[in-house]
Each structure stands twice: as structure tokens, then as C-alpha cells.
Design brief:
The complex is a heterodimer. Helix content of chain A is 26%, strand content 33%. Chain A is of the alpha+beta class. In chain B, helix 1 runs antiparallel to helix 2 (13-22). Classes of the chains: A alpha+beta, B mainly alpha.
Chain lengths: 232, 168
Amino acid sequence: MTEQKLREILEQNVEVPDMVNRKLEETCAQLEGERRPAGRKGPRPLRLALIAAALAAGCLLCVAAGVPARVFHLAAGGIETYEKIPGGPDVLTQIGGSRNPISEENGRLWLTIKEEAPIDITDLIGADTPYIYDNTDPETGYRDYLIVGGVPGDYGWAEYYEVEDNRFASCGGANVYTEYASIDGVTYTLDELTPEQRERTEHYVQNNDEGVKMWMEWRPWHDAAIKQLGIQ
Amino acid sequence: MEELIRRALAGDGAAFVALMDSQKSTMYKVARSYLHNDADAADAIGETVLACFEKLDTLRQPQYFRTWLVRILIRKCQDILRERTRSVPLEEIAPAACAEPGHARVEFLALLDGLDEKYRTVLLLYYGEGFTVKEIAQAMGLKVDTVKTRLKRARAGFKMIYEAEQEG
């Protein structure tokens, strides 16, 4: 049996039974009902207590393992902590959860920083022009930037904070790049693909379909902001 | 898919649902390879979706989303297997699906069921889902060399089962 034959048998699409589809739908409906931002889980009580202690102390602690090393009050809302475990992974915990800070109303774009009143930024941003909100903590000097850009109908945002000196991590964002696929020489955005073309892009990701290429392009306003800030 | 992940991370519930839906075939195949029946596979997938929703913020590199998702799913499957072992006599466990000519899903799964559990998922992830050996090792918590060995034995085992099926 050849490798090709093995792939043919094992990669074939399997009909997902109704029972599984129903379970998936029920679970997703349950999550929708909770109306909690995806992926933003509240920390365990003990951890919350440690973070609260750090916040109450009004400082960023670099002491025993498990205590947050850096605390950020995000411009998009919520609090995020970052700690580096020696020899281990980066650990990030978010309290409160960030939310989309930019919204459109009657053809105008409004930016909401933390709990402040929304401001109209329609004329301050564009497809190539970002608006950068510098959320650097005046006490610690740890940098945090909220970047927004685009035009009504096509706008986005991203927030980056400094986890180590001159090393930044993304802590939220939306609509900051476009994904493209070229299928048999024709270029599409991923939103334009038919279900059959989507299948081919999935196949490409897994097995290198010869007729397919995929790439992503950052939005010009995002690129301009990153360049201006010099953070990548 | 990365755009969906980003949007889900930013709190877009519709993107999260679309993301899970895009992975349901992979989740079903992996869960079914562990659990042998659709009801348990559905439970494992439901638990996995909940866990993903809870833990999405721990995913910092979207390109590893599928590895991360499968790792969670495998743990849920193992939990169900452990629970089942404790509570159900072995002889009462639902039999593996039988091959029914013309029913691609059952044929495909019945072939996999003929393999030992430790080979099924490795084979499925590598050939069926396009995972690399390293990604399988990460998803299953195994050493890379162990994955390679299992893959080699899985290929040989699957070949025997497949050829016997064709001759029979």
C-alpha cells in the first residue's frame, strides 16, 4: 500500500452524524446564551486573589512564581497580566475581557477607550492612516498601544503591550489583515471562496495542493502604525 | 482560519461558532477513533467546544490552533474512556461499527477500528488530517520517536486490515 493510497483512504471526508451535529449546535447555543467574550475566562479564585493583591499594592511584582510580573489596564478594557516562567511558557491572564473598542454608527466611527465616552475618529483614520492611542503606564513605563484604522464599513483594531523590553504581544484585535487564496491562477479573498474552493484551500494547508497558494496581507493602516511605533 | 481565530479571540461569538464548525469533521474522526461510538464522540466534542471557549485566551499562536484543539479533544476522549472503564463492564461497550458496503463513513471507521488504539489516532492525524510528526507528538503528549514508531507499525497494521478487507 502506497503513501498516496493511505492518504486517499484516510483523508476522505467523513459524514458527521446528526447526533454530533446536534451536540455541536446545542453546545454553541449554550455558549451564545452566556454572552461571554470568547476565550476570556475568569481566573481561578486563588489567582484572582494574587492579582488583586498585586493591584492593591499598586505595583508590578516580580516575586514568587505564580504572582503576575506585569499588569496592564488595557485600552480596550479589562486587565491583563503577563508573567514569564523561567524555562516555561509565557502565562497570560485576563480579567474582565477586552472588547471591540471601535464601532460604527450612522456612517461614523467611534472609539471607546476603557470606560471613557466614545470619541468620533472618522476623520482621524483611513485605509492607510492609523490612530494610535498610547496607553503606556506612567508609573512603570510599560508600553501598551491601541491601534485603530480603516474606513466606515471596513475598519479594525489591534492592541499590543510590552511583555519584555522591546518585545510586544498582541492582546486583542480584529480585521487587521486580509487572507487571500490564489486558485488555479485566480486570486480571491477567503470570504469570496465557494465551499468547493474552501475545501481545496484546506487541502492545500494539509497537503500542498499544487494549484493553490495562500497568503495574508496586513492592512496598510496597521503596517503604518507598526512602522511608526517601531515595535516589530 | 487565522482570521476566524483572531476574531474569536477578540470576543466574536459568531466567529467562534464558525471556527468550531470548520473543525467538526476533524473532531469527529479523532473522537470516533478513540471512542468507537457516535454518542461518546458527540459528548467528547461538546466538552471540547466548551473547553476551547474557556481556554481560547491561552492560544497565543493561531497557527497551532488545530494541534491545540486536538490535544484538548484527546484529553476529553481519555476522560470518557476512563469513566467508561470504571462504570461499564467491558462486554457492554458498544461494538465497533461494522463495514456496510456503500456507506463510506462506516467503512472508513471500521477499518480504523481494526487497529490498536495507540495506532489509530496517529495514523488518522498524519494521513487524514495532515499533521506533522512533531504536531502529533505535541497533541498526544508523546515523544517524536514514539510517534514515528507508532506510525510505522500503524501503516503495516492498516495495510494488513485493508488488504484482508479487499480480499474478503
